Write a sequence for this structure.
């Protein structure tokens, strides 16, 4: 356990030394800042059904598509290419400790980035004197629900990214694999609903299981303050699966 | 070698990558405190063997022991006993030297901070990395200093066996000299295995050599044993005034096995440089001097006896493979292991 925390601390520090982390951080906050501004502007023009926080978190997939590959592509691909992975594994550190430490570090960084977006409503509140506006901006159920969704879904997305990183020696290839994997998880399940056999009326259709995979619906539930165990199970089991596969890939593809 | 005296013992190690057999039936032993060179052309199986010994690769069959501990049954114990510097010496560019070594010391089981600080301090001095170098980013270091960092890393956990894979690759002559001094300083305190194809390096540093070719051990022993096996006899270089034919006749009366290796080279006047190879083991130089002095028309300027170098032995031991490589249409070796040096 001590060794795990040692590697975790090292990985956390390496993330802060990596230019890719800063690129990811700056792009993330810049893009989400612009999106939040656009959402608020929409509120000034037309009445909206959903709170700014709900609308904001509905766009979670935009930063996820580039931040997750940027944060995870370096994980194993670069270390495998340079040979550092080999050097690390000649110590008594086990592949599973290394995988969990890398995952812990990128997950911490990812949460930190999302936590920084809480500044957006705070900044907006400083600019309004209307009590109704303040309540709308600080709608706690949708804010915390959105953040909880981001935290839980992030587990799956980052573990998928790390798994892709363990499959290649090239950061570029692992980033492309990661992007494709994220697309399949986030948008692929929605596309599945377009297949005739999974429509509600189709006999023997499997709409139920496919609905269970709908990431956007999970977000709506979370934003509405509904915390269902099924999405948790989906994200956690997916995370465990990808971390297991990453460990196998690291241990076997030396 | 008695198995109890062996620091490393490998018996019938084999490893396949798909259909390709990177090594097959590799057996050797390294005694405690020995410095042993692992030699072989590219694709001979040096790196594969070294990586099996470090626990990074599993052998398809066979077994190895390090300090009496089985690699298959006690891999963690073996890893604690081994220090390893991989080929190309990968290091994190962004970390500082001291920072990297402290982190590695923690990973290698030096639990207490004081213990880590003390060991890192010792190695910084031993490898001449103290003061400014300790605070430099590894990415800013020259290749020679990077090798020192790699060696310091390999020595961190007081290993009893250190494996260095191509440690002088890409170093300039000054850096090679510095690195050689460092390794010389370790002689006797631990068992050192150098995997290399820089033959002069191995010849200078190693007590014994193990030569691999096409995944098999083709020769092993001290330089004298290898000479006996692959390059028996000696070469004599002479500078003498007189007829080359007569010089040859006179010398052959002393040693009938003597053969002239190349045509005499005229060095001005009647002075010739001649080269003879002899199948006889003892040094016959004094008897050659006597024989030439007895002949009035010959004046000997110099005589020099040369032993076969490790390069000659290496070429003799790996010749079949070299010939095979020259055949047209032969497929390149399978690039198993990193850098194709499996």
């Amino acid at each position: 356990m001590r060794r795990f925390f040692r590697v975790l601390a090292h990985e956390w520090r390496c993330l802060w030394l990596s230019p890719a982390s800063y690129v990811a951080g700056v792009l993330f906050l810049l893009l989400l800042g612009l999106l939040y501004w656009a959402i608020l502007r929409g509120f000034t023009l037309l009445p909206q059904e959903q709170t700014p926080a709900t609308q904001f978190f509905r766009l979670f997939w935009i930063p996820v598509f580039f931040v997750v590959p940027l944060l995870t592509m370096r994980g194993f691909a670069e270390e495998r290419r340079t040979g550092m992975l080999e050097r690390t594994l000649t110590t008594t550190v086990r592949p599973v400790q290394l995988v969990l430490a890398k995952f812990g570090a990128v997950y911490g960084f990812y949460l930190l980035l999302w936590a920084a977006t809480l500044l957006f409503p705070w900044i907006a509140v400083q600019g309004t004197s209307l009590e109704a506006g303040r309540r709308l901006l600080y709608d706690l159920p949708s804010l915390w629900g959105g953040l909880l969704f981001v935290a839980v879904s992030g587990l799956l997305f980052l573990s998928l990214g790390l798994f892709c990183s363990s499959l290649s020696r090239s950061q570029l290839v692992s980033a492309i694999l990661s992007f494709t994997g994220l697309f399949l998880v986030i948008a692929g399940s929605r596309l599945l609903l377009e297949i005739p056999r999974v429509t509600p009326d189709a006999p023997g259709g499997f709409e139920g299981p496919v609905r269970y995979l709908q990431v956007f619906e999970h977000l709506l539930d979370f934003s509405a303050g509904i915390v269902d165990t099924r999405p948790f199970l989906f994200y956690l089991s997916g995370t465990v699966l990808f971390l297991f596969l990453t460990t196998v890939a690291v241990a076997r593809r030396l | 070698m008695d198995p109890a005296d062996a620091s490393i013992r490998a018996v019938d190690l084999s490893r396949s990558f798909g259909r390709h057999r990177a090594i097959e039936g590799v057996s050797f032993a390294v005694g405690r405190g020995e410095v042993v060179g692992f030699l072989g052309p590219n694709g001979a199986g040096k790196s594969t063997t070294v990586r099996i010994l470090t626990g990074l690769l599993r052998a398809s069959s066979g077994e190895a022991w390090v300090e009496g501990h089985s690699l298959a049954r006690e891999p963690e114990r073996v890893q604690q006993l081994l220090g390893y510097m991989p080929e190309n010496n990968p290091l994190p560019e962004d970390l500082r030297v001291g920072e990297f070594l402290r982190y590695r010391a923690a990973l290698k089981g030096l639990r207490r901070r004081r213990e880590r600080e003390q060991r890192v301090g010792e190695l910084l001095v031993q490898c001449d990395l103290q003061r400014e170098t300790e605070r430099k980013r590894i990415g800013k270091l020259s290749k020679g200093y990077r090798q020192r960092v790699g060696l310091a890393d390999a020595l961190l956990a007081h290993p009893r066996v250190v494996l260095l894979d191509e440690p002088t690759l890409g170093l300039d002559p000054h850096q090679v000299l510095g690195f050689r001094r460092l390794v010389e300083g370790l002689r006797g305190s631990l068992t050192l295995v150098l995997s290399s194809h820089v033959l002069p390096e191995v010849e200078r540093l190693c007590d014994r050599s193990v030569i691999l070719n096409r995944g098999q051990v083709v020769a092993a022993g001290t330089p004298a044993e290898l000479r006996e096996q692959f390059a028996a006899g000696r070469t004599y270089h002479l500078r003498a005034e007189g007829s080359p034919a007569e010089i040859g006749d006179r010398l052959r009366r002393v040693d009938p096995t003597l053969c002239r290796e190349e045509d005499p080279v005229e060095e001005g006047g009647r002075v010739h440089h001649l080269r003879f190879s002899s199948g006889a083991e003892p040094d016959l130089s004094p008897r050659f001097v006597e024989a030439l002095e007895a002949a009035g028309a010959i004046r000997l300027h110099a005589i020099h006896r040369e032993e076969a170098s490790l390069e000659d032995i290496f070429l003799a031991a790996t010749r079949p493979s070299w010939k095979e490589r020259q055949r047209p249409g032969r497929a390149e070796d399978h690039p198993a292991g990193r850098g194709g040096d499996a």
Observations:
- The interface with chain A takes residues 51, 54-57, 76, 79-80, 82, 84, 86-88, 90-92, 94-95, 103-104, 106-109, 111, 153, 338 of chain B (CB under 8 Å).
- Confidence is low (pLDDT under 50) at residues 328-342 of chain B.
- The radius of gyration of chain B is 24 Å.
